[in-house]
């Protein structure tokens, strides 16, 4: 159990887009794939800022980080990927749906 806690602390890194990878965190987190020219992505920015206050969020600009977006198999924008301990558990283009999923997993893990 002690080793598991230590591992969880190591994994509890701030979720960031680091070059060609996204670092996992313990608990639910969100990967938001967007582009500056995408109007639905721009519309979601205020809500995404609110989500980031509650959960770790990594934003991937599809134009600046094409390889990372391709690794996640993103073919439409916006794409919101709910992650749990570094694994994809849900994918949607609806940020409110992603937020509900994040909150559900957060309640389960408490």
Describe the structure.
By secondary structure, this protein is an alpha+beta fold. The chain has a single domain (21-109), classed as Glutaredoxin (3-Layer(aba) Sandwich), CATH 3.40.30. It has helices spanning 2-11, 39-54, 66-71, 95-109, and strands at 17-18, 21-22, 28-34, 57-61, 79-84, 87-92. It has a four-stranded mixed β-sheet with strand order 4-3-5-6. The protein has a two-stranded antiparallel ribbon with strand order 1-2. The protein is globular.
Write the layout of secondary structure elements.
Layout: H1 2-11, E1 17-18, E2 21-22, E3 28-34, H2 39-54, E4 57-61, H3 66-71, E5 79-84, E6 87-92, H4 95-109
Parallel strand pairs: 3-4
Antiparallel strand pairs: 1-2, 3-5, 5-6
- Write the element-wise H/E pattern from the N-terminal end onward: HEEEHEHEEH
Which class do the helix and strand fractions yield?
alpha+beta
Give the name of the CATH architecture: 3-Layer(aba) Sandwich
- Total number of domains: 1
Total strands: 6
CATH topology title: Glutaredoxin
Annotated CATH homologous superfamily? Glutaredoxin
Strands of the widest sheet, in order across it, are 4-3-5-6
Q: How is the biggest beta sheet arranged?
A: 4 strands, mixed
| Helix segment tally | 4
Outline: globular
Quaternary structure: single chain
Mean residue pLDDT: 83
The CATH class designation is Alpha Beta
Stretches where pLDDT is under 50 for at least 5 consecutive residues are 1-19
Give the N-to-C terminal Cα separation: 17 Å
């Amino acid at each position: 159990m002690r080793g598991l806690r230590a591992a969880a602390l190591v994994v509890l890194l701030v979720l960031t887009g680091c070059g060609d990878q996204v670092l996992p965190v313990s608990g639910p987190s969100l990967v938001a794939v967007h582009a500056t020219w995408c109007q639905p992505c721009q519309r979601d920015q205020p809500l995404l800022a609110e989500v980031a206050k509650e959960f770790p969020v990594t934003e991937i600009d599809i134009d600046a980080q094409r390889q990372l977006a391709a690794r996640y198999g993103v073919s439409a924008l916006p794409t919101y990927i709910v992650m749990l301990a570094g694994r994809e558990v849900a994918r949607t283009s609806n940020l409110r749906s992603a937020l509900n999923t994040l909150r559900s997993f957060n309640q389960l893990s408490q």
